[in-house]
């Protein structure tokens, strides 16, 4: 059953002569438990697609369905609740609140939803422990490395038991080693916890961790690749495809 | 803990410096309001205590509406009234004592400076009052100079039963024998001394007269019955009598109310400046936390949660700031009262005591401080809630809509300034005050529109000065890039300095005008000054004997005395001063507002009077009008012969009549202030000795040369004004806070930019200079507008004061220079910490900063 479905999803910024089509009639379906990477050259509409899927932005036309329900008609409050309960976000920058410690950051969606802080913290700590952050719970973001910060962000994305995780360039700000760790973690999230993960990246090596890769160019889906198994050649394959698209 | 609270607390504690500066803005506003509002009520309480202490324990007190003496036989009219159980006549006089009267030691502070003399009618007083004795006996009808005092007074002046104590009286100093001691006084107020009524009348030179009837009535607790009795008494005695408490010092209370209003305006302005600072800070906070807010929205925070979080920060700061403001305001009030004690005891002989804090004031200050903090954060909080998760994830573009800034606000501001200028021509104090507010508000409104032209003009000058540093353009650009924020900072500086310049103008104009008045009013060679020169009614004067003795001194040319009575015109209390129209111009003198010296003769012509400017304004009278004055014989018509002013009565509603009329209508023959002029080429030393000899036995007067007295008055004025200058500096402090806040925020906000500048080759010195120049530009802008506003406001203040007391406008050149220096140095001072922070930024970390 499709967790996410888009129909002729279109987003145009500006008007008249200054109008720029960021997404042009995009139709995609993503199933439960899939790990999908969205790739493409700069300005192809990757992030716009992510924002529309997460209800952060409204499409110019077309439909986004989450769990079979169209989110186009939802008001701000409904969208806020949807993001709180059904979707987890991981961004490249500005991922954590600087004045909260790791456990508090991870617990944020629960505390915002009214859960008792102790209980929310306990749940957050469980996720942080799973991601090897047991001894970093009380550290503030500026006391954590980039990789550790992204682990906290992933724990936060998972803490409210959402069905979908949206990650926008989650490794863009990390070194190779940390990037691999985070990509592996997202793959585990999909495999072990049966969450649907959609990740935007421009790095073929990172994209190779996904099950399926959607290639975008000039706002349209131009190709899809399914990667059956994780192996060292996948990154090369993805890189070749990207090169072809860019050319 | 609620997540909004937790976030609010964490953000506040995460930026300690900024939190402290913002909270300080509220502390300051509340401090001024709280401090000022305890100073005057404390003074008022001290005065009221003096009034009420006299009324004792009787259920009703009856006095003449003028507070003057009336015939003792009136008691007989009260006694037969149904419901009156007992009634007694009293002669009550407050005796202001000269300094060191009892201890004769100028080193030690006086433990007793005021006595309340009560002449008791022993036939019936004990049926109204009880006098529980601790030692000795009570007064007997046959006693002459016997006195009963309290144990506490006996302790203070070290006397016991059988000892004698001296008191100044109208007929010279008298020795009284202490025959009984009452239990120590527990209530605040002046110490009472009790003597036989006939003796009191003798030493106060008012045979057969009393000024108070005390009565006990049946069913006192029953409001209806009590009203019945009160109405019956009123009917019997007529409307010239009032039933309740003694009437005195009302005129001073009125002046104090007005003072409190002026100080409250200062306090509200200070709080207004605080609101500007908080608003500015919150706006920047929202801008700075755009990414945090966007993230919170992305992970599920609703709009109301974001608004709530910002408002909670305001609430926390408001509560802490207001509480700190109240505490520091108490100490400010305490300090001012300590400073005011000296002039208060010198002029009105009243002890101020510790600050009186009305519980409602604490509530009001807390409410004001908290609500202003929360309200200042409201618009930024609403704006914060409008941030979408997507806004936070996109790079920010600092866009300036110049047209919008010059639009509606500029128009409104121009209208306000126009209205302010028009109201300059009004003669009404309330319109003048409205004009002042309109002008200031207008300046605040047009500020955003003039930020850019100002920045361009002064930026070019700075760029020339520092042309090798290349920072002039940057500082100018930075100032103009956020016209709204710059305008808010400039407005806070503007208000702070405008109020300071205006108050400075007022002080310099009033002090020069008062100095001129002192020269005129105190121009005589010798003065016999009572302890209180404002509240004449509390002084014990002298009978005509003293004046005769002074006239008899060989070297003396002119003797002129003042006599005092209280009166009422409509419901307004009026001080009536009796002068000798022939002598007064030669020894003292009045400044004529409408009329001339030749009008003195008119005072001898039937019932004529001079009125002062406050009287003219309060009653709405002018030269030629006929006004009815309440006298001890009912209301009498007096014709206004001239409008005049003098120093001593400048603040109080006063009329001057001839001493002849005063004796006829008020039965007052007691001199309470005497001026003496010597003959030309008189032997000063011989005159000095002779005058002092003549005045011996009248210790209630201090004999002092006119020059010396003028000098001591000027010194006291200087002391009072130095306190005022301190207040002016306090009023300018919020502008420093505003600039410091804005510049600190600028550094935080531009961290990446500063990092980039350092990366492309800017030295630490250049960065420091850039921030300092920015501070200087901000300060110059605020200072120029502030001086402009202050000059206008000052002119209006002086004009407003001129409607009820003599004052001429003096251009405050030194005030303007001081404001310029203070404003610009505040700009540099405010930049010290932020520029150091900016210069010390680590380039790599700054570039990574988001």
TrEMBL record, chain A:
Pfam family, one: ABC_tran
ABC transporter domain span: 4-243
Alphabetical UniProt keywords: ATP-binding, Lipoprotein, Nucleotide-binding, Transport
Gene3D superfamilies: P-loop containing nucleotide triphosphate hydrolases
Keyword Lipoprotein tagged: yes
GO CC annotation terms, alphabetical: membrane protein complex; plasma membrane
InterPro entries, sorted: AAA+_ATPase, ABC_transporter-like_ATP-bd, ABC_transporter-like_CS, ABC_transpr_LolD-like, MacB-like_ATP-bd, P-loop_NTPase
Keyword set includes 4Fe-4S: no
Gene Ontology molecular function: ATP binding; ATP hydrolysis activity; transmembrane transporter activity
Name of the protein in question: ABC-type lipoprotein export system, ATPase component
Organism of derivation: Flexilinea flocculi
Classification of source organism: Bacteria, Bacillati, Chloroflexota, Anaerolineae, Anaerolineales
Automatic annotation (TrEMBL), chain B:
InterPro entries found in the cross-reference section: ABC3_permease_C, MacB_PCD, Macrolide_Exporter_MacB
UniProt key word Cell membrane: yes
A single GO cellular-component term on record: plasma membrane
Pfam families referenced in this protein's UniProt entry, alphabetically: FtsX (PF02687), MacB_PCD (PF12704)
Ranges where the ABC3 transporter permease C-terminal domain occurs: 264-389, 726-842
Subcellular location: Cell membrane
Keyword Cell membrane part of the UniProt annotation: yes
Source taxon at top rank: Bacteria
Membrane topology: Multi-pass membrane protein
Keywords: Cell membrane, Membrane, Transmembrane, Transmembrane helix
Chain ranges passing through the membrane: 20-40, 261-282, 319-340, 360-385, 406-425, 431-458, 487-507, 724-748, 769-797, 809-833
GO molecular function: transmembrane transporter activity
Domain MacB-like periplasmic core: 19-213, 486-693
Family from the record: Belongs to the ABC-4 integral membrane protein family.
Entry-linked PANTHER family: ABC TRANSPORTER PERMEASE YTRF, MEMBRANE COMPONENT OF TRANSPORTER-RELATED
Protein name according to UniProt: ABC-type transport system
Source species: Flexilinea flocculi
């Amino acid at each position: 059953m499709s967790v996410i479905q888009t129909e002729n999803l279109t987003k145009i910024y500006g008007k008249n002569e200054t109008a720029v089509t960021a997404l042009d009639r995009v139709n995609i379906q993503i199933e439960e438990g899939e790990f999908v990477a969205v790739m493409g050259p700069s300005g192809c509409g990757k992030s716009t697609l992510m924002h529309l899927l997460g209800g952060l932005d409204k499409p110019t036309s077309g439909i986004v369905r989450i769990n079979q329900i169209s989110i186009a008609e939802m008001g701000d409050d409904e969208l806020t609740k949807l993001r709180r309960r059904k979707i987890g976000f991981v961004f490249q920058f500005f991922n954590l609140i600087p004045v909260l410690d790791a456990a508090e950051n991870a617990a944020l969606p629960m505390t915002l939803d009214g859960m008792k802080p102790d209980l929310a913290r306990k749940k957050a700590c469980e996720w942080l422990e799973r991601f090897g952050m047991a001894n970093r719970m009380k550290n503030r973001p500026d006391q954590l490395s980039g990789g550790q910060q992204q682990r906290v962000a992933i724990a936060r994305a998972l803490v409210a038991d959402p069905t979908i995780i949206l990650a926008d360039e989650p490794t863009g700000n990390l070194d190779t080693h940390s990037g691999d760790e985070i990509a592996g973690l997202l793959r585990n999230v999909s495999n072990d916890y049966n969450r649907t993960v959609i990740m935007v990246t421009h790095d073929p090596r990172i994209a190779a961790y996904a099950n399926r890769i959607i290639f975008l160019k000039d706002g349209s889906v131009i190709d899809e690749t399914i990667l059956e198994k994780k192996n060292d050649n996948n990154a090369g394959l993805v890189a070749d495809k990207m090169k072809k698209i860019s050319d | 803990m609620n997540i909004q609270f937790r976030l609010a607390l964490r953000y506040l504690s995460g930026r300690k410096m900024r939190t402290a500066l913002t909270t300080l803005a509220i502390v300051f506003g509340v401090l001024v309001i709280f401090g000022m509002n305890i100073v005057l009520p404390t003074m008022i309480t001290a005065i009221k205590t003096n009034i009420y202490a006299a009324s004792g324990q009787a259920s009703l007190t009856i006095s003449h509406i003028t507070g003057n003496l009336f015939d003792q036989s009136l008691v007989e009219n009260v006694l037969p009234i149904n419901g009156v159980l007992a009634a007694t006549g009293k002669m009550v006089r407050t005796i202001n004592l000269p300094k060191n009267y009892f201890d004769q030691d100028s080193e030690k502070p006086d433990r007793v400076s005021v006595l309340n003399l009560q002449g008791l009618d022993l036939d019936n007083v004990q049926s109204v009052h009880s006098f529980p004795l601790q030692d000795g006996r009570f007064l007997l009808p046959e006693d002459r100079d016997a006195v009963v005092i309290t144990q506490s007074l006996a302790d203070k002046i070290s006397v016991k039963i059988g000892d004698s104590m001296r008191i100044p009286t109208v007929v010279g100093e008298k020795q009284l024998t202490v025959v009984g001691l009452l239990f120590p006084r527990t209530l605040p107020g002046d110490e009472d001394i009790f003597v036989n009524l006939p003796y009191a009348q003798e030493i106060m030179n008012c045979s057969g007269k009393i000024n108070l009837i005390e009565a006990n009535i049946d069913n006192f607790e029953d409001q209806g019955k009590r009203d019945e009795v009160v109405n019956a008494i009123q009917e019997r005695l007529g409307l010239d009598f009032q039933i309740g408490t003694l009437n005195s010092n009302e005129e001073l209370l009125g002046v104090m109310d007005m003072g409190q209003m002026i100080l409250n305006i200062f306090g509200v302005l200070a709080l207004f400046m605080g609101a500007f600072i908080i608003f500015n800070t919150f706006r920047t906070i929202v801008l700075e936390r755009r990414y945090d807010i966007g993230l919170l929205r992305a992970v599920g925070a609703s709009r109301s949660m974001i608004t709530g979080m910002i408002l909670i920060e305001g609430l926390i700061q408001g509560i802490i700031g207001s509480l700190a403001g109240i505490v520091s305001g108490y100490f400010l009030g305490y300090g001012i009262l300590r400073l005011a004690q000296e002039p208060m005891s010198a002029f009105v002989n009243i002890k101020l005591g510790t600050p009186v804090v009305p519980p409602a004031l604490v509530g009001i200050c807390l409410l004001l401080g908290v609500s202003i903090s929360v309200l200042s954060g409201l618009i930024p909080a609403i704006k914060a809630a409008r941030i979408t998760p997507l806004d936070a994830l996109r790079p920010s573009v600092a866009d300036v809509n110049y047209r919008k800034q010059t639009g509606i606000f500029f128009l409104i501001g121009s209208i306000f300034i126009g209205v302010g200028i028009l109201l300059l021509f009004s003669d009404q104090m309330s319109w003048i005050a409205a004009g002042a507010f309109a002008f200031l508000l207008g300046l605040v409104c047009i500020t955003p529109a003039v930020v850019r032209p100002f920045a361009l003009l002064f930026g070019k000058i700075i760029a020339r000065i520092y042309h090798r540093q290349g920072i002039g353009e940057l500082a100018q650009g930075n100032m103009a890039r956020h016209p709204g924020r710059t305008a808010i900072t400039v407005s806070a500086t503007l208000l702070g300095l405008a109020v300071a310049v205006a108050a400075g103008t007022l002080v310099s104009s009033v002090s020069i005008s008062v100095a001129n008045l002192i020269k005129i009013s105190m121009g005589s060679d010798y003065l016999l000054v009572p302890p209180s020169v404002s509240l004449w009614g509390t002084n014990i004067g002298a009978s005509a004997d003293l004046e005769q003795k002074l006239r008899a001194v060989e070297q003396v040319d002119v003797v002129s005395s003042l006599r005092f009575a209280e009166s009422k015109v409509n419901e307004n209390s009026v001080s009536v001063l009796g002068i000798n129209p022939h002598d007064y111009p030669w020894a003292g003198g009045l400044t004529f507002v409408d009329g001339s010296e030749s009008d003195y003769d008119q005072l001898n012509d039937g019932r004529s009077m001079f009125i002062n400017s406050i009287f003219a304004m309060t009653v709405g009278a002018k030269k030629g009008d006929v006004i009815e004055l309440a006298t001890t014989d009912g209301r009498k018509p007096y014709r206004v012969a001239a409008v005049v002013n003098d120093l001593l009565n400048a603040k109080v509603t006063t009329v001057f009549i001839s001493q002849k009329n005063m004796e006829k209508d008020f039965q007052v023959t007691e001199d309470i202030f005497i001026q003496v002029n010597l003959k030309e080429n008189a032997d000063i030393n011989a005159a000095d000795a002779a005058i002092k000899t003549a005045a011996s036995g009248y210790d209630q007067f201090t004999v002092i040369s006119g020059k010396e007295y003028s000098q001591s008055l000027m010194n006291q004025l200087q002391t009072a004004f130095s306190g005022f200058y301190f207040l002016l500096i306090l009023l300018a402090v919020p502008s420093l806070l505003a600039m410091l806040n804005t510049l600190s925020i600028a550094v935080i906000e531009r961290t990446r930019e500063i990092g980039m500048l350092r990366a492309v080759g800017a030295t630490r010195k250049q960065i420091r200079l850039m921030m300092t120049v920015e501070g200087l530009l901000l300060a110059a802008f605020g200072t120029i507008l502030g001086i402009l506003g202050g000059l206008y406001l000052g002119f209006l203040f002086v004009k407003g004061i001129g409607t009820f007391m003599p004052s001429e406008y003096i251009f405050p050149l030194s005030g303007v220079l001081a404001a310029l220096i203070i404003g610009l140095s505040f700009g540099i001072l405010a930049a010290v910490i932020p520029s150091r922070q900016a210069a010390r930024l680590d380039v790599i970390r700054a570039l990574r900063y988001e």
